[in-house]
């Protein structure tokens, strides 16, 4: 059974490599009206999700390690074609972000071997998904995936490339804004607060700097001292991820 899975994984990696070299150019300049072009990508995402979920559920370190290799190759290909226009295809975008979440939850080993450029591209894509233009479900999935990535690096103490660390810090304002805009939407609000808290745990200095900058604006000037006290009361001096955030 393990040999069958290994053979299947090798085949998928070969298909990904061929597709990336020969087919990816088809998606350059693609718009939301070109849904037919994305049908084969949707099929690929379905196949990849089914194969990975089957072997991971069956367990085994070899399966998981090989699955991480497939995840890495697949993400490299997918991120090379996932521009803003492609992400406007609803079915394709939803399957893509769900797959990313699944991979960062169950093939976390892939994160430790990804190049800095790929990690940055992945987080940029998740930041794009966090915006409201793709709908609430994709926003939630993107924030949950980003929380998983941040939590992985904090829990394992794996070195964080400087450009990735900057991505985490730069996402704090977006996560904060998402919390404010969705305080009455429980699902989005819960994911946004978890995402924000994980980012704060990663870089409390960046959050403090963001708060100071926000409170220095003219509209907040009169209440800045009170607001600063309220922000200080929200968090401990050294926030740490707990069970809920991980």
From TrEMBL:
Q: What GO molecular function annotations does the UniProt record carry, in alphabetical order?
A: nuclear export signal receptor activity
Q: Which UniProt keywords apply?
A: Cytoplasm, Nucleus, Protein transport, Transport
Q: Does the keyword Cytoplasm apply?
A: yes
Location in the cell reads: Cytoplasm; Nucleus
Might you name a Gene Ontology BP term for this protein? protein export from nucleus
Q: Which GO terms describe its cellular component?
A: cytoplasm; nuclear pore
Q: Report if keyword Protein biosynthesis is assigned.
A: no
Family, per entry: Belongs to the exportin family.
Full protein name: Exportin-4
Organism, as annotated: Oesophagostomum dentatum
